[in-house]
Amino acid sequence: MIDSQQASAALNDINDVVRRVRQSQIYQISSIIITIWGVLVFAAYIANYTWPRQGYTIWTVTNLLGLAVTIAIGFVSNLRPGARAFPIRSLITFLLIGAFGAFCTVMLGHFGPRQMIVFWALYGMLFYALAGLWFGYAFIVIAVCTTALTLIGYYYIGPAFLLWMAVVHGGGLVLGGLWMRRI
Fold this sequence. Notes:
With 183 residues, the chain is mostly helical.
């Protein structure tokens, strides 16, 4: 027979294991999504550097493709018993984030191309940092590092800024995603 303190300690141990397993599952799915976004963003920066006049089209296609892949991964990861088949909350979240960012850049801000790139990189990292408050420090580390390096590039990198961002933003997401798989 166990007393109430032992039972409480056992329940705390079980809750700790459940929390760690849940965080591990979140990191596994997130690492795939973050790595794919990193590859897409890296390619978009290189394409934008190569064809600067096509930047709007390049980023629109990149973001729509990234959204579609994210939704598909969310859908597949939710194919377990008792889970929703379609991640509607994730879709609505992405759409709201995108709509607010578009409103800020089109209606409020009069950004040049360089400022637009920095805005979207920092805006995206804000949500990684917020995710870190709920899901674990890896998101916060990715956000802080990418934000710092983006700002360094904005102020100190000249014509090679898009190449800098390909490495910092795209490469940072890939490294962050791979790092999350190891945690």
